[in-house]
Design goal:
14 strands, alpha+beta, globular, six-stranded antiparallel β-sheet, 4 helices, binds 2-oxoglutaric acid, four-stranded antiparallel β-sheet, 18% helix
């Protein structure tokens, strides 16, 4: 199937109705790739004032520019989360999106053309729930089954929240292609500067039991 047709179809489908099934669009009969179970997408998790404040707070912190895209690490072994991230971590738990309050956050910055390779988040150090809050540019995230052939994609809009748990967290990789535009409703949307805040919980290791 031509990529642009494929994309123009699935972006119109709310993930609320895509719950691990293959769907067919009325009148088009084109299969819509099912999103992994455990993926929950929430548009407008924060408002635009909060987005601006978070962007400003991010820019006041120091970027690590030693890897292919700028990155910041907060919380975990770096100490407590700064207030501006702790407030969002608390909201994720209070709103029922996360069972525990996240204690560490990675901030990724993406200029147009930058992405992140396919990966499953580290299972030894991170808990079962991953929360990604998007600021700035819209971007497409792609998912691939680790032990299978299935692929899926989800547009991440500014101010949205993406939750990954269960199969979406452990059995599928996620990635953002390093390119300058994304398919949106049959067109290409040019990327701008994007920042993501990825909230995770540390895996606590108790004393070994006999
Ligand atoms: O930028 C994103 O939306 C994804 C970030 C991510 O996958 C990561 O930090 O491991």
């Amino acid at each position: 199937m031509d990529d642009s047709v494929f994309c123009s179809c699935y972006v119109l489908i709310s993930c609320d109705i895509v719950k691990g099934m293959s769907l067919f669009l009325p009148g088009l009969d084109l299969p819509v790739p099912a999103l992994p179970a455990g993926l929950v997408y929430t548009p407008e998790f924060i408002n635009s004032t909060e987005e601006r404040c978070l962007m400003a707070a991010v820019e006041r912190e120091k970027w690590n520019r030693e890897i292919s895209r700028p990155r910041q690490s907060h919380g975990g072994r770096h100490g407590p989360l700064p207030d501006w991230l702790a407030a969002i971590a608390r909201r994720l738990a209070d709103s029922g999106h996360m069972e525990e309050v996240a204690d560490k956050v990675v901030v990724n910055g993406y200029a147009p053309g930058q992405g992140i390779g396919a990966h499953v988040d580290d299972t030894a150090s991170c808990g079962g729930e991953i929360a990604i809050v998007s600021l700035g540019s819209l971007v497409e995230m792609v998912f691939a089954e680790v032990a299978g052939e299935r692929k899926a994609a989800q547009l991440l809009e500014p101010r949205s929240l993406l939750m990954l748990s269960g199969a979406a967290r452990y059995d599928w990789s996620h990635a953002i292609s390093a390119r300058r535009s994304d398919p949106v409703a049959g067109m290409r949307m040019a990327r701008q500067w994007r920042v993501s805040l990825t909230f995770r919980t540390s895996v606590r290791r108790g004393p070994a039991t006999a």
